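Give me the fold.
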Amino acid sequence: MYSDPTTRDSKDTRNRSRRGISLVEVLIAMVVLSIAMTGFASIAMSMKQAGDNARDHYVAVNLAKNRLERGRNLRVDLLPTLAESYVLLNVHGHPDANGHFRRSTVVSNISSTLYQVTCSVELKNRLSLAFETAVENVTTLITDMDD
């Protein structure tokens, strides 16, 4: 029997295309996919940390502003009672021994009817759980308009 070489080559080509994906190709695809997924996970973690940090600063500013608003509702002669040092607070502004915020309020008498109230809120680092350099300060002047 005589076989035509062109027929045999076309059969080999068809058989090779029917074999499917090799194990090496699957492994390479898995490595590429895992590298991409690691990159996406890293980006997602960075975004979460940035979001948490922004939220903590927002809460700290609001805790300070709420303290100053309380001072605006007091009589001027009672403003010195607002002074406090290193009070631990939770996100709702309530005293909490495990709070993530530490508030200090300083009341300075500028003149007989003018007070400067400064509220500082420190943020606890989420990783080290220590109060470090992140501080939000808010200052206002309060006066007695009755005189």
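The first strand starts at residue 84 and ends at 89.
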